[in-house]
Amino acid sequence: MPSSPLPPARPACPSVLVTGGAKRLGREIALALAASGWRVAVHYRDSVEDAARTVAECSALAPGAASFRANLGNEVAVRHLLPSVVEEFGNLDAVVNSASTFEHDNAATFGFAAMEKHLRANTGAAILLAQSLHTHIDERNRALPEMALGAPCSGVVVNMLDQKLWNQNPDFFSYTLSKAALEAATTMLALALSPLVRVVGVAPGLTITSHMLSDDKFAALHKLSPLGRSSTPGDVAATVRFAMENQSITGTTLLVDGGQHLMRFERDFSLM
Length: 272
What we know:
This protein is an alpha/beta fold and 272 residues long.
């Protein structure tokens, strides 16, 4: 009886670009992936010291991490980012689009400038990086000898979304629009970039506190879910890793929020 074909082997030291990887949730994702053997490219915009610290900690877990600076609101900078990583690393296997502009507006204060700022950084940059990864993977496969054994190279993009897309409120209007557009783009990219690149969304609930919430308020809000707890950084990072390493997932979003998307919130967490 013939044996079943084995899935393509993962590179011995796969590499990933994590945007916004210098701090907060992006940092947690970068560290978790480094702990799993991924070589991490830590993207940052202005957080020079945070990026250096994250790179040092990632390198202690999986040698070779490096930082890369880019303004994701600038198309030229975004188009240069992934090739810069490839020039440093040699190859790239994955992108986690974690960086996010998150500024308050609502229906009354909405304007084109705010919408464009969020769409550029949160949506357009993620699409361009997915496009760039696909080009890189395609070029790697074309460079293989015609009779090379083994499966072709493949890649994966993980787009960080938000449970509020399934539980909407009118706060952070432009931010929510940009994430809704990215959720739609996740489906379209999964179709357009297959079979070389998978594209998966991960949507956390309330995960990390901010200057807008006291510790006590954050703890109380974190409990507002059917499971009595929302997502932790470890939960989210583990889901990102799962999405990256499971070869059968594409074109869908994994909600990691303790079920918060099932509840009705009239306001954003930070304004409750």
